[in-house]
Structure formats: structure tokens, C-alpha cells
């Protein structure tokens, strides 16, 4: 499942917006009676989940890098004293 098969706007949405979209898809799946449509929508939900995971991992990496930088700056200030 490649994210290039997803609509382009998924790549520009925030994690919160993507989560909201996923919740809407889940609600639709829970209310559907037709299994044929359910399979297609479930595949879309799985693809969306991958996009969410990738964005989440990217955000974690950015936060980790910023934290390391701040710790380094603080340690430099302490060593300078």
C-alpha cells in the first residue's frame, strides 16, 4: 500500500485533521451494510493509517532532534561557567 495512491491533500493535512478523517471513515464503515463497499473503504482507511504513522514518526524525530539541541545548549552553558 503506497501513499502515492492516496489523495494529495492527505500529505498536507495535520495529524489532527488526518485523525478526524480516519474517525469519519471508521464511522462510515461501522454503518455500512454493503460488504463490497466496505472492503474498498477499509483499504482506504489502511492507507490513511500509514500516512498518519509516517507523519507521527516524522514529528517524533523532529521533537527528538530539538530536544537534543536544547540539552546540548544547556550543557554548554553549564560547562562555560
Q: Give me the Rg, rounded.
A: 19 Å
Give the CA-based shape: rod-shaped
Whole-number total of structural domains: 1
Helix content: over 70%
Quote the average pLDDT.
85
Q: Secondary-structure element order, as H and E?
A: HHH
Question: Count of helices?
Answer: 3
The description of the largest β-sheet is: none
Count of DSSP strands: 0
State which percent range the strand residues make up. under 5%
Unreliable stretches (pLDDT < 50, length at least 5) are none
Report, as a whole number of angstroms, the end-to-end distance. 54 Å
Give the class from helix and strand content and strand pairing: mainly alpha
Write the layout of secondary structure elements.
Elements: H1 9-12, H2 15-31, H3 35-80
Helix pairs in contact: 2-3
Amino acid at each position: 500500500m503506497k501513499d502515492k495512491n492516496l489523495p494529495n491533500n492527505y500529505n498536507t493535512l495535520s495529524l489532527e485533521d488526518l485523525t478526524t478523517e480516519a474517525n469519519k471513515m471508521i464511522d462510515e464503515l461501522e454503518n455500512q451494510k454493503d460488504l463490497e463497499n466496505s472492503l474498498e473503504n477499509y483499504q482506504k482507511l489502511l492507507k490513511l493509517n500509514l500516512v498518519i504513522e509516517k507523519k507521527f514518526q516524522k514529528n517524533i524525530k523532529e521533537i527528538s532532534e530539538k530536544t537534543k539541541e536544547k540539552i546540548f545548549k544547556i550543557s554548554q552553558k553549564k560547562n562555560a561557567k
